[in-house]
Each structure stands twice: as C-alpha cells, then as structure tokens.
Design brief:
With about 160 residues, this protein is an alpha+beta fold.
Amino acid sequence: MSVKEYTQEELTSAVRSAIEDRGIWFYLLIKAAKRQGVDVEKMAEEAITEFGRMKGEKMGAAENPGEFVLKLSTGHANEAFEMERVQHDKDKGVLKFRYCALVESWKKLGCDPQEVSWLCKLARCGDYGVVSCSPGLKLEFPNLLSEEDAYCELVVTKE
C-alpha cells in the first residue's frame, strides 16, 4: 500500500470543499422542504441540534469555557475555519473564525444576505447542540461572517 502525503494547504482545501458540499446539500434540502410545506425552521433546528449533540457527546464534556474552546479548535477544522484562540481560561473561551466554507457556499449559490444570515442561524444550532453536552456553559456569537462581520466570534462563558 502506498502512502500519499499532502501539504497543509491541500488538506485545508479538501476540508473546505467537503464543507462547501455540505452547505450546498443543506441549502437544497431546505428549498425542497419549503416546497413541500414543511416547517423548515423547526425541522432544521431539531436535526442540526441533534447532530451537534452527537458531536458533543463524541467530543466529551468540557469542565469550563477554556477547555471547551480547546476541544473545539483541534483537528483539521482549525485550519479550514482559520480559527484563532483568543481566550481559553476557566471563566471564558473565545474563538474567532476568519473563514466559513458554509457561508461561502451559500454566497456562490447566489443567496442574498438575508438568506445567508438565516441559513447560518440554522447551522449554528449544531454549535448549541455541542455546547449542550457541557452543562453549565453558555454560547454566544457576537460577530458573524454571515452578517458581513470580519470574523465569527464564538464566546463561551459559565451560565
């Protein structure tokens, strides 16, 4: 068996491409559900929150905001989202995301700013699902790429 090596740039590009594909099928699923008269918002919120919970269970509960940020910002997603660990202590965790392949996929599909913002709101249900597996932690997004901010800012604090 031969082993192929990849540069970080190639790997980041592949991960972003996979995330963009997820953004496209998410958008198409939402459109199809709307055409069929489904309560799209409720359906998406439930499904994506559950997906987040599954990821959160796999990640394991964090004892404090800083630990949550450290757990969340590991692996290939760190590079794909251009994450910056701003703060990660026992009282507060702050991550900045300077790139989002989901937002980029929706823009490439021609979604208007309101639609991108709404799709991002639904996608963030996954993040709320992940944090729900760490009792006592609260998650906020004071800045969002989908709102034309320079970055997404994920802030985790104690409840």
